[in-house]
Write a structure and sequence with these properties.
This is Cytotoxic translational repressor of toxin-antitoxin stability system. This protein has 139 residues and is an alpha+beta fold. It folds into two domains: 8-84; 102-137, no CATH class. Helix content is 44%, strand content 12%. It has helices spanning 8-18, 60-71, 75-84, 102-110, 116-120, 124-137, and strands at residues 21-22, 34-40, 46-52. The protein has a three-stranded antiparallel beta sheet with strand order 1-2-3. β2 and β3 (46-52) form a beta hairpin. It is elongated and about 75 Å long.
């Protein structure tokens, strides 16, 4: 698919849609030459992009650099966010599995004789059922 030539307005719309935060310089100013945004990645990294004030368009090589190195998205993801508000999938942290109570884990490993790996694969209900079997049958 062919995409339109991006503008600085498109760049800023992307940042606002995805939830980037505008940052200030060391003296607390927002600057007059560029608008700078940062975005915290779920992996702990931080992306930074700068948008110049003049409202003209980006050239192809500069735009490729911005997409690849600053925004870290494909053109398709960029335009999906700008046009439709679909934020890029940044591989957010997955919700942790339901944690088992520490006492339950201890009993399964030290009394029922299960391995850490076996206990780690169990849901709470499975762990409770296995402990009930141990108590009722002794195995």
């Amino acid at each position: 698919m062919t995409w339109p030539q991006p503008t600085r307005e498109d760049h800023e719309r992307f940042c606002k849609s995805e939830g980037w935060r505008r940052i200030r310089d060391a003296r607390g100013r927002t600057g007059t030459h560029h608008v700078t945004y940062e975005f915290d990645l779920p992996t702990g990294g931080i992306l930074r992009t700068r948008i110049s004030h003049p409202p003209d368009r980006y050239g192809p090589s500069l735009w490729a650099h911005i997409l690849r190195d600053q925004l870290q998205v494909s053109e398709e993801e960029f335009w999906g966010c700008v046009r439709d508000g679909i934020v890029p999938d940044r591989g957010g942290r997955q919700a942790p599995a339901e944690a088992l109570p520490a006492d339950l884990v201890y009993l399964l490993i030290h009394r029922a004789g299960l391995t850490d790996a076996e206990v780690g694969r169990m849901s709470r209900d499975e762990a409770l059922a296995r402990l009930q079997i141990f108590w009722s049958e002794g195995s």
